[in-house]
Design brief:
Blueprint (H helix, E strand, L loop, with lengths): L9 H27 L7 H17 L4 E4 L11 E4 L6 H6 L7 E5 L8 H7 L3 E3 L4 H16 L4 E3 L14 E2 L1 H9 L3 E7 L1 H4 L12 E5 L13 H19 L13 E2 L3
Parallel strand pairs: 1-8, 2-5, 2-7, 3-4, 3-5, 6-9
Antiparallel strand pairs: 7-8
């Protein structure tokens, strides 16, 4: 599948309008978040700032968001929220849509960026380095500690953005954390961000977005030996939600296993 068609002149519109506005919003909200971090030890106020930043980013991108099955987001207590990963715009789409405070499990390199990295560090987000199994386990263990403290975690189980808009294999880290913390996994399907900003594309194409919330998958009583089975269940749940609401046709056969041996 090729990338979604770009409107003629979209690159220049992105460079001259979208990018400056988004950069200004990121710098502005990042500075405010840093200021609030001086006294906001709980991260609640910083999270509210991040949610406002995310909604502003979606407004700049002219991409309205619709949440389907929002009542499934009202459960209390910690949970792992697992979502497919399509675009750099996934993060603002999720921060702008989830109505509660949470932490993200994010690639460690993001913490090096000015403003975004500063906010991630000061607001207590969880870095993970996927360069080795040992570093992956260390990051996931930090996520388990966050869950046990009562804070929900958001994770992209595919580990990287999809290049073609389809859902590919999941790593078992989400299931590992949920089982270790004995909390449910909530499947989330994000639709439309690939059309808005595909991987390796540098122009925005405004597009309506959807966040489809699935039924929680319980893990109570399971051990980490069941992580692969839970990961397959999660993959099937997110795939069903995604292809029900996406313009893409679900492939007859997935060319690789639905789970990866890597965490």
């Amino acid at each position: 599948m090729t990338s979604p068609a770009r409107i003629p002149g979209a690159v220049w519109v992105t460079r001259l309008i979208f990018v400056p506005l988004m950069a200004a919003a990121t710098i502005g909200f990042g500075l405010v978040s840093l200021l609030f971090s001086l006294w906001d030890k709980s991260g609640r106020q910083q999270h509210a700032i991040a949610q406002t930043w995310a909604r502003v980013m979606l407004r700049i991108a002219c991409s309205p968001m619709t949440v389907i099955n929002p009542e499934r987001l009202r459960q209390s207590g910690a949970a792992v929220y697992a979502c497919n990963h399509l675009s750099y715009m996934d993060t603002p789409a999720l921060f702008g849509s989830l109505p509660f405070q949470f932490r993200i499990l994010a690639n460690h390199y993001l913490f090096r960026y000015p403003f975004i990295g500063w906010h991630l560090t000061r607001s207590g987000q969880v870095p993970i380095d996927q360069s080795s199994l040992r570093s992956q386990i260390a990051g996931l263990s930090r996520g388990v500690s966050t869950l046990k403290s009562g804070m929900p975690i958001l994770i992209f189980p595919d580990g990287s953005r999809s290049t073609d808009g389809h859902i590919h294999r999941f790593m078992s880290g989400a299931a590992f954390m949920a089982i270790r913390a004995q909390v449910p996994i909530v499947p989330l399907a994000l639709v439309g961000t690939h059309e808005l900003l595909p991987m390796h594309t540098y122009s925005l194409a405004p597009h309506p977005l959807k966040l489809v919330v699935g039924e929680p998958i319980p893990t109570t009583g399971l051990t980490t030996k069941g992580a692969d089975a839970i990961t397959r269940q999660l993959f099937d749940a997110i795939s069903a939600l995604y292809y029900e609401h996406s313009s893409l046709t679900r492939p007859v056969q997935v060319p690789e296993e639905t789970t990866s041996s890597a965490l």
